[in-house]
# Entry
Amino acid sequence: MLRSKYYNILGLSTTASHQEVKKQYRKLVMQYHPDVNASADAQERFIQISEAYDIIINNKIPKDKKSLTPEEKKKDREERMKTARKRFKEQELREKRENEYYFQSLTSGTKWKVFRTITLVGAMLSLFLFLDLILPRHYEKDEVVAYRVNIANGPSGQNLSLVKTRKEKLYWISGLDYHLTSKTRLVNIERTWFFHSPVRLIARAKIERKNYGVHFTFFNASWLLIVLFLIPAATFFYKRMTLNFTFLYHLSYFGISLLIIVFLLTGYRWAHLLTFGFL
# Structure
């Protein structure tokens, strides 16, 4: 029952873990520290928070102050403030050392070598994705052998149909009409230079040729991919001991790296990249 008083000072229940106590202590001392809040109530609260932390974490026995004279109480308060400030400084130094050690673990050794590789590959893919937007296209002859009309909606709400070609490829296209269902089923597949991403189907009619945009491909998200693949490079050059760096580092290390792997392994993009788009 006595210890519950100190949990209440921190605004926690008696079931709170030591980790929760430490987190709440850091939050409250920053709010009531005398250098931040100069009011007398805040100073007293700062002392109480520090003592509550010490009693809970270090199992200290609280002092009995009932028998102290006014002069002794004043001296005791000064001593408690001094102790609270000291504990706060020690906590700050401990957190600083922990942060420095953690930052060093991220930016050195094997982890940093792997991160540099992710940075290099991501920057390279961004470059080739940009070149794919401006370089000439490949054209591959094929033939539509089956289709399903208006079975999905595109990003802009348009109706999308699914077509299957003789080469066992599936394409989501918009505006499917008689050019591909009755008039002719011969098509040219327009693909990007490096990654051979499908851009559109072109009906090979004798008189009129019609284009059908292909949806749900990496090409449709080229600009987004370029930005995402450049995040590791931005993080590499940012490299500061901040929360933003830590977030971007882990996003790059686990998220962007996985996206890179999926991007390269689907559609034989790794092979297209190695042959600079010629195969």
